[in-house]
Specification:
It is a single chain. By secondary structure, the chain is of the alpha+beta class. It is about 15% helix and about 20% strand. A three-stranded antiparallel beta sheet has the order 1-2-3, with helices on one face. It starts with a strand and ends in a 31-residue tail after the last helix. The model has no long low-confidence stretch (mean pLDDT about 85). It comes from Stratiformator vulcanicus. Pfam families: DUF1508.
Length: about 80
């Protein structure tokens, strides 16, 4: 099975970023932040390569859906005329 690849590039701000592409060319991960120095970008890739094989998979419960606030119309009080 062909391996994926890391691509290193500079963004509009001139900062370095990486993206990981699968063997089919689809992007599956990215740096998420820009690095001012290319060497720091390369360290980010090295860290991922080192730590990912041992990373645990933790399933997170989906966040609770926000509760809808229902505004009830105030009951109109009939003024008693005497």
């Amino acid at each position: 099975m062909p391996a994926g690849k890391f691509e290193v590039f500079s963004d509009k701000k001139g900062e370095f970023r990486w993206r990981l592409k699968a063997s089919n060319g689809r992007q599956i991960a990215s740096s998420g932040e820009g690095y001012k120095e290319k060497k720091d970008c390369m360290k980010g890739i090295a860290s991922l390569q080192k730590n990912a094989p041992e990373a645990k998979i933790i399933e997170m419960d989906p966040p609770e859906a926000p509760k809808k606030t229902v505004k009830k119309k105030a009951a109109k009080k009939k003024s008693a005329k005497k």
